[in-house]
Amino acid sequence: MFCYQCQEAAKGIGCTIKGACGKTSDVANLQDTLLFVLKGISILNTQLKEVGQGDKAANKVVFDGLFATITNANFDHTAFVIRIKKALKFRDELKGKVAAAGLLIGDHDSLHWTAASGEEFEAKSKEVGILSEVNEDVRSLKELIIYGLKGLAAYAEHAYNLKHEKQEIFDFMMEALAKTTQDLPVNELIGLTLETGKFGVDVMALLDAANTSAYGNPEVSKVNIGVRNNPAILISGHDLRDMEDLLKQAEGTGVDVYTHSEMLPANYYPEFKKYSCLAGNYGNAWWKQKEEFESFNGPILFTTNCIVPPMEKATYKDRIYTTGASGLTGAIHIPDRKEGEMKDFSAIIEHAKKCAAPTQIEEGEIVGGFAHNQVFELAEPIVEAVKTGAIRKFFVMAGCDGRMMSRDYYEEFAAKLPKDTVILTAGCAKYRYNKLPLGDIGGIPRVIDAGQCNDSYSLAVVALKLKEIFGLDDVNELPIAYNIAWYEQKAVIVLLALLHLGVKNIHLGPTLPAFLSPNVAKVLVENFGIAGITNPDKDIKLFLEEA
Ligand code: SF4
Ligand code: SF3
């Protein structure tokens, strides 16, 4: 195996024996092979699309497959073997359609290779894995594009589950994936990287429309972080349609539902607040799950990443359920919903009834729900505070959290920021500072949480609105600094989206991606002012000195 797609890549180079995330080499190899087959499907369907015969079924095969290979989403060997088998069968059907349309089938190996067993699937990865691209810069750009596409695919899937889809986004996803099989000059690959960012904006806008049209606009909300006395289910991940189905089925059963990690923002949606079984948020960011799942006592539902494979001795092993693109060997997987129906969560609800209520680990409330609509309603006092100097600067600290010690930086950074600054956040990065007593500025909280990582889109919308209100030509003239924490590939698409929107001087930490070759990193530094982080004191000084 060789994998360097996330911030925890071993030694800052890549994982080769086992992932720091817990991914075993057999699963890593199967993921590489699945990606290879998805490239073949993308080549064929792009050909069909060009003659007006694109196959809509390809959309889901590709976005769901890409999503399953995201860091910490799916650790299930068998699930990948099944996916590869299905993908090969689907690819061969597409080949038939390409031939029937009178088109030539190319000679890329992803169009012709075939095998039937898990061992053969694994063996293939040696030829088609990341290192099969020998030019370091080309490899770096291609992987940057692929990771952006993985993030895009995840967001597209959530929107799709809410019946929001845009064929242009799927077409781009497949066109770009197909292009990664070609010998393209570096300039073209840079162009494709930036184009990926454009579609990143589009997919986040689509998901925002899907979420808000289904569940209303997030509103300022106090979320309970203590516990009640009922047995309960903990729901994690990002999929709001799963959240809806679970709440509907749990309501009135005596079983409560708590959110974990990236599901916290579900508490901000008016439609979800109506359910009396929604009891609040339990715990913190994903990487604390080993302790928090023990004390939760009830079953846990993963709708997406981030899963940490449990230790052998973990007591909660038989309380884990997965659904959608997520998977874990030994966990119970809840199948997809049938057309027009809800997913069937009865098993997890029955399981919860037999469990003790959660053990309290925290108490009190946290405040969130500042997506774009809510911020616009509060625009007047915010703009006023900027004009009077009560707010000197905003700090976008969106992105991911992770278990590396070096991430203590973000807590320290937030705590040390001057009191006339405001943090704008989204994603699980917020858990580093959303429980600190940072206070407010004339009633405006100093931590403004827009929601999940995809709600970084909301922060971009707010920035563009402020640019308009202040009559500026360039979004970079605003008093906003970007200090983003990344971990997995959704953060990659958020970053590319921000670059597409013209945002410059983004600081990225706790370390720069291992998949950026020195030359590609240089392009990002020279053209976009991308930089790393140093220490909180030095960085705060630097940010405050910047215009
Ligand atoms: Fe390593 Fe990250 Fe890949 Fe897991 S996802 S194998 S931690 S680089
Ligand atoms: Fe977090 Fe995994 Fe990225 Fe959605 S849940 S932000 S790390």
Automatic annotation (TrEMBL):
Enzymatic reactions: A + NH4(+) + H2O = hydroxylamine + AH2 + H(+)
Residues annotated to bind [4Fe-4S] cluster: C3, C6, C15, C21
Comment on bound cofactor: Binds 1 [4Fe-4S] cluster.
Compartment(s) of residence: Cytoplasm
GO biological process, one term: response to hydrogen peroxide
EC class name: oxidoreductase
Amino acids binding hybrid [4Fe-2O-2S] cluster: H238, E262, C306, C400, C428, C453, E488, K490
Pfam families, A to Z: Prismane
Keywords annotated in UniProt: 4Fe-4S, Cytoplasm, Iron, Iron-sulfur, Metal-binding, Oxidoreductase
Entry function: Catalyzes the reduction of hydroxylamine to form NH(3) and H(2)O.
UniProt-recorded name of the protein: Hydroxylamine reductase
Organism annotation: Mangrovibacterium diazotrophicum
